[in-house]
C-alpha cells in the first residue's frame, strides 16, 4: 500500500510540474487541493513548479503557488531561483510579486550572476531600475 501511495504522489507531483510548465491554472488549482502534493517538488534540472511558472510568465499560477507555500528562494542545478528566471525573461509583474513575498534580490547563481545582471544583459531597463530600487546589486 505504501508503494501505491508513493507512485500516486510522484504522479501527482509530475502533473503539477507539467501544469506549471504549460500554464494550466485550473489543473494547478485542482492539484494543490490534494494533500499528497509537494508544492516544492524538483523535476528535471532541479526545476520547481514556481520556477516553471516564473520562467514562463504565468502570473496567476505564481500567485497560487506562493499562497500554497512555494519556496520562493529555491535553486535549480545552476543556482537559478524563480526571481532569476523572471528577471532573465523580463516578467516585471512576477518580479514584483516575488520580491513582495520575500525573494532575495541579491541571490547569485553558480556563475556569480545576479537578477540585476540578467535583467541588464537582456536590456530590461525598467526592470533593472526596479531591482535597484529594491536594493539589488551586481
Show the helix and strand layout.
Layout: H1 2-22, H2 25-31, H3 49-56, H4 59-67, H5 82-89, H6 92-100, H7 115-121, H8 125-133
The beta-strand count equals 0
Helix- and strand-based class? mainly alpha
Helix content: 55-70%
Q: Beta-strand percentage?
A: under 5%
From the structure provided, what is the oligomeric state, counting identical versus distinct chains? single chain
Task: Extract low-pLDDT stretches.
Answer: none
Q: What's the order of the H and E elements? A: HHHHHHHH
**What general outline do the C-alpha atoms trace?**
elongated
What kind of sheet is the major sheet?
none
* Rounded Rg: 15 Å
Alpha plus pi helix count:
8
Mean pLDDT: 93
Q: What is the terminal-to-terminal distance?
A: 51 Å
Can you give a write-up of this model?
The longest helix is centred in the N-terminal third of the chain and has 21 residues. The chain is mainly alpha-helical.
Give a short summary of the structure:
The chain has 138 residues and is mainly α.
What attributes characterize this protein structure?
138 residues, mainly alpha, 57% helix, elongated
Amino acid at each position: 500500500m505504501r508503494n501505491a501511495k508513493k507512485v500516486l504522489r510522484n504522479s501527482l507531483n509530475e502533473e503539477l510540474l507539467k501544469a506549471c510548465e504549460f500554464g494550466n491554472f485550473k489543473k494547478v488549482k485542482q492539484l494543490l487541493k490534494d494533500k499528497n502534493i509537494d508544492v516544492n517538488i524538483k523535476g528535471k534540472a532541479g526545476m520547481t513548479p514556481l520556477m516553471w511558472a516564473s520562467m514562463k510568465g504565468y502570473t496567476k499560477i505564481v500567485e497560487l503557488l506562493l499562497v500554497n507555500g512555494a519556496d520562493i528562494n529555491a535553486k535549480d542545478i545552476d543556482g537559478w531561483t524563480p526571481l532569476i528566471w523572471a528577471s532573465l525573461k523580463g516578467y516585471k509583474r512576477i518580479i514584483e510579486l516575488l520580491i513582495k513575498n520575500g525573494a532575495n534580490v541579491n541571490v547569485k547563481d553558480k556563475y556569480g550572476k545576479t537578477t540585476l545582471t540578467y535583467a541588464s544583459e537582456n536590456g530590461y531597463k525598467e526592470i533593472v531600475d526596479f531591482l535597484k530600487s529594491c536594493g539589488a546589486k551586481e
